[in-house]
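Researcher: We plan to redesign the surface later, but first we want a full-length starting point. C-alpha cells attached.
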C-alpha cells in the first residue's frame, strides 16, 4: 500500500507502507505517464519537477505493480526570482532580489528558485508563501560576517522591564548570526524540491575556536522561531556552519525525505534540532553529519523560568542515520522537559550511539524526560546502543563537585528526572561498545525502563571507552551492560551474544 504524505503544485511525497527500517529489501522502478522516472528502494520517495494542476499516472514496477493516479495542486502566482534580478552565478549577491520577491508575493504564492547558484546573506520567510527549489538550484550563504544580520538573543524593551527572545545558542538566549533561511512567527509555509541549501561552513573560519563568540555565534542553515505548520521536504541541507535545521518554539512541523550532510570533522553540525517544540514529524530523512543526527532539546535553566515550554509529541520514523555522534539524542539542554517521543522503523549505521540521553544536576525540576519509545530499529556497527547519563560533563561548572559527585546530595529545584523508557524489537549487530549504559543520580534514580524482544550481537573487535561523557568515567574492559541508580528495570527475554562480555552491578539477575 502506498500513502500520499504531501501534494504540491510540482510533485508528491509518497510512503510505501512496510515494517522495514528505512528501505525495502528490493529496488523498484517508478514510471510517470509511462516514462521512466527513477529507481529506488526507499520507503519515502519524493517525485518533483512535475507541472501544476496536472493528472499523473504513477506506476511502481517491482512493487506488486502498484499504480496511483494523482493530481498536482493548482497554483495562482508562480514568482520566479530571476524576474526580480536574481543572477544565480554564485558571485553576485542575490539577497535583495529573493527577499523582494518573497515580500511582494500575494498569499498562496510559490517562489521558484530555478537552476543556478544564488549567493545570499539571509532569506526571510513570510506566512503563506512557499519556496520551491528546482533540481540544480543552490542557495549559498555568504561567509562574510559583515554581510550577515545578527539575531539579538535577548531583546529588552525600552524600560528594561520586559524582553523577548530572538535566538538560542546551546540552550540560552544568546546572539547569533542569522541563518541562511530564517522565519519568525510565520505559518503555512512549505520549502520543498530537489535543490540544495548550502551554509558555506567550510569557508570563513567558522570552525576555528567554534565555541568562542565572535561578535555573535555561528549561523544555522535554517532557523525557525515560533512558527506553525511548516513543511521541509526533499531538499539537501549541507555544509552548515552550525546546526543544519534548528526549530525553536515551533509546532506542527513536517520534515519529509530530507538529505542532511555535514563534514564528519565539523563541530556542532547537528542535523535536525527541535527545541521546545511540539507535534513534529521527521520521516524518511537521511543524515550524515559531524555531530548528532537528531537532538531534541528544551533550553537551559534560564529558559525554564522565562518561557517553560517542553519538547513534546515528536515522531521520528523511517530515517537513516549514517555516522554522527548520536542517532537520536535527548539533551543536554532539556530544562523545560521532553516527553512523548516515538522513534520507529529507523536504520542506524556507524553512529557513536543509538539513543543518547544526557542531562546533569542543574537542569531543573521541570527537566522531566517521560515516555520515550524506541521500536523496530536496526543498528549496524553502532558503538553504544543505549546510553542514559545523568552526570553529563558540560558547561563551565561541568567539573564541579555539584555536577560530578557520586554521593547522594539533597533534592532541590535543580534536580532533573528521567522515567518511562520503552525499547522493543531492536536488532543490533557488530556492537563495538555497550548495549546498555544507564547511570542515574543517587538522589534521583532513573525509573521504569523496559527492553524487550531485541537482539544484541557484540563485535569481536571492541572499544574500551566510557560510553558517556562524564567526570570520573566508567572504564571497564569489554563492558556490555552497566546499570547504576535505576529502579524498575526489565530487560528479560532479549538475546545478548558475544565473548568476554562484562555485565556490571548485578545485571545478570535481571537478564
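Model: Full-length starting sequence:
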Amino acid at each position: 500500500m502506498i500513502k500520499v504524505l504531501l501534494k504540491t503544485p510540482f510533485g508528491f511525497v509518497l510512503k510505501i507502507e512496510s515494517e522495514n527500517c528505512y528501505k525495502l529489501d528490493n529496488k523498484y522502478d517508478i514510471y510517470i505517464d509511462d516514462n521512466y522516472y527513477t529507481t529506488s528502494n526507499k520507503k519515502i520517495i519524493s517525485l518533483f519537477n512535475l507541472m501544476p494542476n496536472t493528472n499523473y499516472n504513477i506506476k511502481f514496477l517491482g512493487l506488486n505493480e502498484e499504480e496511483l493516479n494523482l493530481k498536482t495542486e493548482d497554483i495562482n502566482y508562480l514568482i520566479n526570482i530571476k524576474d526580480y534580478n536574481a543572477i544565480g552565478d554564485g558571485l553576485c549577491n542575490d539577497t535583495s532580489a529573493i527577499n523582494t520577491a518573497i515580500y511582494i508575493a500575494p498569499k498562496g504564492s510559490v517562489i521558484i528558485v530555478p537552476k543556478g547558484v544564488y549567493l545570499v546573506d539571509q532569506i526571510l520567510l513570510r506566512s503563506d508563501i512557499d519556496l520551491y527549489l528546482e533540481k540544480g538550484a543552490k542557495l549559498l550563504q555568504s561567509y562574510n560576517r559583515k554581510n550577515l544580520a545578527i539575531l539579538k538573543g535577548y531583546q529588552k524593551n525600552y524600560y528594561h522591564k520586559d524582553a523577548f527572545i530572538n535566538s538560542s545558542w546551546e540552550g540560552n538566549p544568546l546572539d547569533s548570526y542569522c541563518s541562511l533561511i530564517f522565519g519568525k512567527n510565520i505559518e503555512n509555509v512549505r520549502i520543498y524540491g530537489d535543490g540544495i541549501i548550502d551554509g558555506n561552513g567550510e569557508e570563513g573560519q567558522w570552525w576555528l575556536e567554534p565555541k568562542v563568540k565572535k561578535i555573535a555565534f555561528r549561523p544555522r542553515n535554517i532557523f525557525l522561531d515560533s512558527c506553525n505548520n511548516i513543511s521541509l521536504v526533499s531538499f539537501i541541507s549541507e555544509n552548515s556552519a552550525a546546526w543544519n535545521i534548528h526549530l525553536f518554539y515551533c509546532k506542527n512541523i513536517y520534515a519529509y525525505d530530507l538529505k542532511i550532510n555535514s563534514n564528519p570533522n565539523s563541530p556542532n553540525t547537528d542535523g535536525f534540532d527541535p527545541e521546545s517544540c511540539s507535534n513534529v514529524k521527521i520521516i524518511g530523512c537521511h543524515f550524515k553529519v559531524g555531530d548528532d543526527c537528531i537532538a531534541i532539546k528544551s533550553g537551559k535553566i534560564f529558559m525554564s523560568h522565562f518561557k517553560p515550554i517542553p519538547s513534546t509529541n515528536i515522531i521520528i520514523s523511517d530515517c537513516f542515520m549514517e555516522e554522527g555522534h548520536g542517532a537520536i539524542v535527548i539533551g543536554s539542554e532539556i530544562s523545560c522537559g521532553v516527553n512523548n517521543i516515538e522513534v520507529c522503523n529507523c536504520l542506524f549505521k556507524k553512529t557513536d550511539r543509538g539513543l543518547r540521553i544526557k542531562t546533569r544536576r542543574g537542569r531543573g525540576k521541570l527537566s522531566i524526560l517521560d515516555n520515550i519509545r524506541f521500536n523496530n530499529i536496526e543498528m549496524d556497527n553502532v558503538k553504544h546502543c543505549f546510553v542514559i547519563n545523568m552526570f553529563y560533563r558540560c558547561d563551565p561548572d561541568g567539573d564541579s563537585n555539584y555536577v560530578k559527585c557520586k554521593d547522594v546530595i539533597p533534592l532541590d529545584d535543580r534536580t532533573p528526572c528521567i522515567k518511562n523508557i520503552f525499547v522493543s524489537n531492536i536488532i543490533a549487530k557488530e556492537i563495538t561498545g555497550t548495549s546498555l549504559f544507564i547511570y542515574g543520580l543517587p538522589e534521583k534514580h532513573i525509573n521504569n525502563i523496559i527492553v524487550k524482544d531485541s537482539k544484541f550481537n557484540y563485535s569481536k573487535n571492541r572499544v574500551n571507552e566510557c560510553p558517556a561523557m562524564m567526570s570520573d568515567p566508567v572504564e571497564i574492559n569489554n563492558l556490555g551492560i552497566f546499570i547504576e541508580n535505576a529502579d524498575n528495570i526489565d530487560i528479560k527475554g532479549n538475546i545478548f551474544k558475544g565473548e568476554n562480555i562484562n555485565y556490571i552491578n548485578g545485571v545478570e539477575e535481571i537478564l
